[in-house]
Write a sequence for this structure.
């Protein structure tokens, strides 16, 4: 028994973005390994818990779903309070939802900072990638530039439907949260990870600490 060495962490993580981009589906997929085509719009604040055990440390991730307030494009400070990371989601079939990400990121950064004054780690999720909209988006460099311009620590092409890159994106976010806690992360690092079907065990966040 190594109880003395066992560390527990509780991380509040926000999942934000426009209505219908797949926030609830991503949380359901990540936490319950399920997907459904008709979730009712979330009413009221809702959160789900995911537990990760890494190197004899326990990370409890409290994933906060948005409360049916997407149409306002912002949330209250109370909702953001004490969060340490965020996923901002857009829908690759609706380019306007990427424009909205700018608004969500600005809202987040204006209402929430870590104790050292830095922004919380945010990972961009290009969801519904199973639709195969590669042609619509062209090269990845456009989204990479978008991430740099808006201060995301990384981005992933995801599908809640086909279970693509959700675990990887969460691993990446958690690593960045840990790194900001330890304050060892160098700035300007960006992860880019393409869908890797069927290889979920290996973390694809290897780029996290490069730079
Ligand atoms: N094809 C596809 N549909 C998805 C995906 N994620 C969510 N959806 C669908 O998109 C709709 C909105 O999803 P929902 O999770 O309710 O979005 P939210 O409003 O952001 O919480 C639902 O019909 C989902 O089944 C995905 O990765 N691929
Ligand atoms: Mg929802």
């Amino acid at each position: 028994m190594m109880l003395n060495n066992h560390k527990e962490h509780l991380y509040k993580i926000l999942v934000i973005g426009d209505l219908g981009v797949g926030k609830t589906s991503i949380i359901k997929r990540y936490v319950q390994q399920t997907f459904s085509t008709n979730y009712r719009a979330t009413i009221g604040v809702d959160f789900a818990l995911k537990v990760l055990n890494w190197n004899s440390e326990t990370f409890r991730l409290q994933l906060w779903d948005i409360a049916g307030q997407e149409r306002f494009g912002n949330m209250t400070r109370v909702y953001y309070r004490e969060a340490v990371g965020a996923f901002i989601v857009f829908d690759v079939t609706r380019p306007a939802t990427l424009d909205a990400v700018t608004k969500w990121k600005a809202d987040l950064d204006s209402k929430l900072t870590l104790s050292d004054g830095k922004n919380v780690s945010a990972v961009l999720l290009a969801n519904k990638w199973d639709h195969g909209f590669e042609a619509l988006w062209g090269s990845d460099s456009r989204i990479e530039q978008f991430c740099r311009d808006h201060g995301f620590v990384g981005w992933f092409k995801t599908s809640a439907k086909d279970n693509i890159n959700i675990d990887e994106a969460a691993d990446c976010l958690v690593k960045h949260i840990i790194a900001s806690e330890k304050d060892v992360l160098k700035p300007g690092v960006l992860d880019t990870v393409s869908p890797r079907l069927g290889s979920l065990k290996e973390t694809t966040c290897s780029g996290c600490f490069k730079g």
